[in-house]
Amino acid sequence: MNIGEVAKISGVSAKMIRKYEDSGLVPKAKRNVSGYRSYSENDVHSFRFIKTARSLGFSLKDIKELLSLWKNKKRASSNVKKIAQIHIEQLELKVNEINTMLNTLKHLTKNCHGDDRPECPILDSLSE
Amino acid sequence: MNIGEVAKISGVSAKMIRKYEDSGLVPKAKRNVSGYRSYSENDVHSFRFIKTARSLGFSLKDIKELLSLWKNKKRASSNVKKIAQIHIEQLELKVNEINTMLNTLKHLTKNCHGDDRPECPILDSLSE
DNA sequence: GTTGACCTTCCCCTTTGGGGAGGGTTTATG
DNA sequence: CATAAACCCTCCCCAAAGGGGAAGGTCAAC
Predict the structure, then answer these.
(1) Considering chain A, what percentage of its residues have pLDDT values greater than 90?
(2) For site-directed labelling of A6, which of A61, B67, B77, B78 has its Cα 20 to 30 A away?
(3) CB proximity list for B70: less than 8 A, separation 6 or greater
(4) B1-58, CATH topology level
């Protein structure tokens, strides 16, 4: 398979497939006589894995480890779980951070008239 | 005031003060004879404004508009409120996205033994 | 035998910070 | 007065995860 077909069926763009290769996330693809990258079904499977992991917010660094564990049939599931749990903690921190912002922002906008007068508690709060 | 003092009392690093100037977020600072940037109390106020707005997650593009509205005594508060509301919507989208990830991740990790055996529903799910 | 759809590499851009080099200035201390 | 520390300057590089697009080679279909 050429890169375009892999992109289509894996959902990972050709651009990113090349980047993942450059960054060492996936091994270098074989090339055909004219220099085109050539892929197997297995490669497609890997790109789907990456795609799904990205959709769960895992970083490429995490995904590199996850791919390696996935391919290692002697892995310990504890290693996978650890990565996931750390990721969960990070996401929870981020959610809390955003919710704190939202609480403040909602409070401020509620008190802003939002008309053509200049008085504005939002700006007041920012300039305090 | 030199940039270092402004950085200390505004909480914005000297590095970022220069970048904000480069990017046009704040006007170019005056220079003294030796080329050092020279600031007033008013400038400090602006950097505090920026710092607070950043802590609420506003982008620099938004902050540029907010600064301009802040300095315009004939502004309409509706323009400020609009920026805040759009920002709130974006943050809510992000929170929802992260919560979706968290739901999936928590479900998967709950079902992962996390011991030295290789079976792992997390990897199973990623490779589906 | 040409055109269009592929593929290649290479470089640039986004966003919001930070690190550090290389070199000039100011201030404090001996 | 000299020197060292603490500033300041500009310029370039880095992160993360994508995307855009140029310039040029290849393949397939008509």
Answers:
(1) 99
(2) A61
(3) A123, A126, A127, B49
(4) Multidrug-efflux Transporter Regulator; Chain: A; Domain 2 (1.10.1660)
